[in-house]
Amino acid sequence: MKYLILSIFFTLTINATTLHLSISSNPSKLNPLIATDSASQEISGWVFDALLAYDKDGKIEPRLAKSYHFKDDTTLIFTLRKNVLWSDGKQFTSDDVIYTYNLITSPKIYTPYSSEFRYVKSVKALDKYTVEVKYKEPYFKALQTWMTDIVPKHILKLEKDIMTSSFNQHPIGTGSYTLKGFEISKDISLKANPNYFRGEPHIREIVYHFMPDPSTQFLMLRSHKLDVGSLTPLQIERQLDDDFKRYYTIYEKISQSYTYLGFNFKNPKFQDPRVRKALSLAIDRQELVDILFFGHGQVCNGPFMPGTFAYNDQIKAPKPNIQKAKALLKEAGYDDKHPFTFEIVTNSNNDTRVYATQIIQHQLAKAGVIVNIRTMEWQAFLNTVVMPKNFEAVILGWGLGLMPDAYSIWHSEGSKKGGFNFISYKNEKVDKLIKKAERTIDQKKLGKIYREIYALIVYDNPYLFLYIPNSITVVNKKIQNVSQSILGVMHNVIDWIKP
């Protein structure tokens, strides 16, 4: 079967006007307001744009907005670009911005992104290309709020149910590419937008080849059938030959993501803090990093990334202590005759998470804990386990933005339907500090509050923070204008040239 698959893949030819990528899971909804999985976010990111975005250095720059300014501490004015068209040829105007705001904050859709707008008092059009945003009070993420992609009013206003709309599979956007085709478990094709307001991309087409098996992606890279791909630490350390290194440039940096073991706080098993602490003490995080990453990663200490104002370098990951873990479990009523038993669920298309789960199963067994493992296809995992909170524990990862925001994951209000706090974590002190941080504009004071939030969350063990992998990306050396950035190597694909 493997050779049959390879023979099919080898018939692909690298076209000079086509960028060949891979995707391991099916996107669920390509409407950016309700796209919560990474596959959906990646594809919709090509199709849509926001008023503001980060540049290659992590600084905020206008995008659909031509310019912006604060009239006062709570009033933000956007002047929109006049040369922007939706991919169906209709003009982009302030009506689309108002509609997007009204939709994302309405009960018509379930979305965790609505929390970004909780401090917005009003949004109104001053004219066709000017938008006024009023905040209830000064807000530390007033600008980042408008990095939310804008959707077309003239299309979606006709839809009765946004959640099930055909728009979610056939989106109309203002982005650099348009969706050429999308079928479940099939390749996804994007075509360069000739009317893109920042200039038509040089690469005419992007094709995502659907490959749920990571080993298949690596075989495609080795046969030069992909232009861009990711490598695992094992691959970069032991499986690359000279031919591979001649064809691809390797880019490596710490990723803006971490992997964790998360507990369902609605489940009585995890409501005892002694149990959560015992499990934390029984896990050897450094062993996980050593086995999984061969030095291409690091232990994760908490919820915010190193290098950000929110990172608390005084908090260290606990050293494994099996005897103390056993003692805590015994205090909580568990012993050899009545062992603590629970199930970990994770997604089957991520080998690293599956291996991590198996290692953790082995580590916890030393403390007398019995772990059952269940792996599932990504969409089934997301829709039937994670979002409905139908689990005991999960192994998942978070990708974090350049501006840390604790609200959506750690505030108790985020546990509502569609929210990112799907473990139902609640700490009243954390809630109050998050609200206080949102009103704090001074960066020094904001950092102090966030570092306290960091410490409180780590103490509670709602997640067992495991590791931060390095991001290892390879790019076809023939492609011109590729550069590393805080945003990653694909921050400027519209400038890439493939001769």
How would you describe this structure to a colleague?
This protein has 499 residues and is α+β, with helices and mostly antiparallel strands. The protein has 3 domains: 2-48 and 161-253 and 472-495, Periplasmic binding protein-like II (D-Maltodextrin-Binding Protein, domain 2, 3-Layer(aba) Sandwich); 52-153, Alpha-Beta Complex (Dipeptide-binding Protein, domain 1); 257-470, Dipeptide-binding Protein, Domain 3 (Dipeptide-binding Protein, domain 3, Roll), CATH 3.10.105. It has 15 helices and 18 strands. The protein has helices at residues 2-9, 38-47, 94-104, 153-156, 214-222, 233-238, 242-247, 273-282, 285-293, 322-331, 351-365, 378-386, 407-410, 428-438, 443-460; strands at residues 18-23, 52-54, 60-62, 65-72, 75-80, 120-127, 130-135, 177-181, 188-192, 205-210, 228-230, 248-254, 257-263, 297-299, 341-347, 370-376, 393-399, 463-476. Strands 11, 12, 13, 14, 15, 16, 17 and 18 form an 8-stranded mixed sheet that branches. The protein has a 4-stranded mixed sheet with strand order 1-10-9-8, with helices on one face. Strands 4-5-7-6 form a 4-stranded antiparallel sheet, covered by helices on one side. Helix 8 (273-282) runs antiparallel to helix 10 and helix 14 (428-438) packs antiparallel against helix 15 (443-460). 39% of the residues are buried.
